[in-house]
Structures are given as structure tokens and as C-alpha cells.
């Protein structure tokens, strides 16, 4: 096996929450860009999108991750992305983010 770097410090819960929140926001921003709600360039409304990523959502992601890791297999980056995506969709976060972003745009009709 190739050289392995020293193991990093274990992530504390707060750091994990922050990472998951960021990941979930990234997924939501991508979804909203695909729907044309957020322009492909310019401000990505991250603050608004992160506002809908609540602790329940990050906990749901952690639950999915621990289920994937329960078989003893290491949790991969792909597992992480998939867990985030599933939790985001199941908790209705895309709709919540959409409502926030749309209400901010408040485009005059």
C-alpha cells in the first residue's frame, strides 16, 4: 500500500454539522440552478439556502451516513454525497429553499 498521511484529528460534532450544512447547501444551490431559480453566475444565495438547512436536516444526513457505515465499510465521498441528496429531498429542503429564494426575488409581476 502507498504511504498514508497521518490520520487527521477526529471531527467533532460541530465541525461535522458545519460540513454537512455546507454540503446540503451546495446540493440545494445546484438544484435551484437547474430549475433556473438561481442564475448560473452571480450570487448563489448561499446564506438564504443555508438558512433552510436546519439541525434536523444535518441529523438526517448523519443518520444515513451511519447506516452506510454500519456494515463496516468505510464511508466514501460518494456515500456522503448520496446521503446528503437523499436527506435533502426527503425533508423537502428543495421546496423550502425555493420558497425562500423566490420570496427574496419578489419580482414584480
Mean pLDDT: 84
**DSSP strand tally:** 0
Distance linking N and C termini: 62 Å
Q: What proportion of the residues is helical, as a percent range?
A: 55-70%
Question: What is the alpha-carbon Rg in Å?
Answer: 16 Å
Q: Tell me, briefly, the overall form.
A: elongated
Percentage of residues in DSSP E strands: under 5%
How does the major sheet shape up?
A: none
Order of helices and strands: HHHHH
Structural class: mainly alpha
Number of helices: 5
Unreliable spans are none
Gist?
By secondary structure, this protein is mostly helical. It has helices at residues 13-34, 46-51, 55-69, 77-90, 93-105. The chain is built from 5 helices and no strands.
Q: Which labels suit this protein?
A:
elongated; mainly alpha
Structure notes:
By secondary structure, this protein is mainly alpha-helical. The protein is built from 5 helices and no strands. α1 (13-34) crosses α4 (77-90). The N and C termini lie far apart (62 Å). The model has no long low-confidence stretch (mean pLDDT 84).
Amino acid at each position: 500500500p502507498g504511504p498514508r498521511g497521518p490520520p487527521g484529528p477526529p471531527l467533532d460534532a460541530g465541525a461535522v454539522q458545519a460540513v454537512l450544512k455546507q454540503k446540503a447547501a451546495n446540493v440545494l444551490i445546484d438544484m435551484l440552478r437547474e430549475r433556473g431559480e438561481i442564475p448560473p453566475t452571480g450570487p448563489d444565495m448561499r446564506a438564504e439556502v443555508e438558512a433552510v438547512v436546519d439541525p434536523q436536516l444535518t441529523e438526517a444526513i448523519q443518520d444515513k451516513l451511519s447506516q452506510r457505515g454500519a456494515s463496516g465499510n468505510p464511508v466514501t465521498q460518494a456515500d456522503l454525497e448520496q446521503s446528503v441528496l437523499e436527506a435533502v429531498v426527503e425533508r423537502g429542503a428543495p421546496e423550502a429553499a425555493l420558497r425562500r429564494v423566490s420570496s427574496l426575488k419578489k419580482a414584480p409581476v
